[in-house]
Structure formats: structure tokens, C-alpha cells
Amino acid sequence: MLDELIELERIIEEGSPHLRVRSLCRVETGAHTFPVYALSLGSGDPGAPAVGFFGGIHGLERIGTHVLLAYLGSLVARLRWDGVLHRQLEQVRLVFMPLINPGGMSRRMRCNPNGVDLMRNAPVDALGRVPFLLGGQRISSRLPWYRGAADAPMQIESQAVCRTVEQELLGAEFSIALDCHSGFGLLDRIWFPHAHTATPIRHLAEIHALKDLFDRTCPHHDYLFEPQSRQYLAHGDLWDYLYLKALGERRRMFLPLTLEMGSWRWVKKSPRQMFSRLGIFNPLPQHRLHRVLRRHLVWLDFLTRAASAWRNWIPTAEARMQHRQAAVQRWYRDTAP
Ligand SMILES: [Zn+2]
Question: Ion ligand 1 — residues with CB under 5 Å?
């Protein structure tokens, strides 16, 4: 059995009066079959602002799932006594898919049981050069970053994410998604689209305003915000695919973000971790794990508040132009006109 799934089902049981729970698909791997859950709490109005928290897309990056289970567990515990939280949830919907790739996690693999990297599996092709293999490849499922066959439908886990985003987030005028990963660099990064091109997204001003709001709210944070394209381009990015889809409705604002936890720092502090496959992606000593689980709660809770009060900080008219200019200056000086 999978410890993360046991913990998720424990939280589901504890929070059952307040949670709407769906099992979106079942993933088979060897002797086991695992459900992929989506949970929501708060406003049931499809037009209410919403935040979606996603994790465990890459089976080795267990820490992303752990961070979301810590936040969800804390919300469920607070629902027993915290009237302010209940009032907040009247205005916002929170959606959780903390364990998207249980088959991969149980087999200690990044990809799903079919050998497909779910973050390279969407039907979007990069518009520039992608790094060899890492940018997504169709050579073989035995190599990492496999996209799946060109003419095949998306994997059931990817489809489950798409359905959840469409049903729970895209009905709202304003929504945010946060997808939790680990394994890149020394710093904790907040990535935003695009991953398939270095061209800025339409909602660059809103992303910059969100960063600005966070800087003012938590001045001592040390997240690095940047478009993923500043690091590398990739084929098949699921969030680019969903972002482009959301653009179909002009009034809709959907801001998909990725928390990329800087796992090299953990390896630097405990070099022996390098010899363990999980150690490259996860903090292994207990005290470090606890610190990681604590530090991101502030950011997750900020997103919940920012979404519920989005009308109070989303820039319009002149301010929007200024945010866009500042963002181009900060992130696209070398690439954009
Ligand atoms: Zn990842």
C-alpha cells in the first residue's frame, strides 16, 4: 500500500462533512489498483473564484504530495473550530488533487505505469529548441521524459487533471492552479507559463501583480518567480495546454503556477542523499522534512486569500500596463520586443 494514499484517505474521512470527493479514475500497476482522487471544499458556485492544488504528477517527487497533504490536513483540522475559515470558504472553492500519479509513486518512478511522463503528455509542441530528452521525447518509454505515442489519447491521469480543471476552475472568472514539484536547482521557484515558447503569456500583468502582492504581504519570502521558458522549453506541458484552452473565454483569468522546490539544496546539506533515487527529489532527514512542510503553508494560504479577494488587487487600465511593462523588463529583456 502507499503511505501517501493512506494519509489522503484518512484526511478524507476526517473532513467528510465538508469535502466533496470524487474518484476520477483507477490506475493499475502490478497487483495494485489505485484511485486518483479530486477533493473540493468551499463554495459550490461554479462562478466562485477557485484555487486548485495539484501534486504527485511525478512519482519520485513525493514531497509535493506531502506539502499538499499537510495543508489539506491543516484546513480539515481548522474546520472543526475556525469560524473565519468557514466564512472565507463561502467565497472561494479549494480543489485538491494531491496524488495524481499513484502508480508511479508506488513503483518509485517519475513516469506513470505506462512509462509516460505526465508533464510531457499534453498535445502541445514547443516552438523552439528543447533540450535533448529533458524537453520531451517520443523515442522510447524506456527513456525518461517520454511523451507517449503521437496519435494516442492523453493518459488517464492527465485526463483526470484536465477534467478537474475544466469542471472546478474554468467556470470561474478567476482561478489559480498550483502544481507542486521538486528536483530543479537550489532555490524554491514559482514557475508560470509558457513552457513551450519564450513568448510572454496574455496574463503577464496579473502574474506580476500577484508576485508584487506576495512581496508586500510576505517581504521575507525567498521564492524566485520566473517563466519556465527562462530555464528550458518543453513539449507536452500540461499547464500550457490548459492555459491556452482557458484563453478561449476572454473574461476568464486562469493563472497556472508550478512550485518547483529546490531539492539540490537538500542534497548539498546531506550529500549521501545523492546515492538514493528518492534522495535527489525529497528531503530525507525528519527535521528538514518538517521545515519544508512548514515553510510552504504560508504560500499556499496566501494563494487561497489572493483568490478569494482577487477583485481587490487585479490591476486594471494604467496599472495593468505598468505591471506588464515591469514584468517584461524583469523576465523578458533578452527575448521580447
Ligand atoms: Zn516534477
Answer: 58, 61, 181
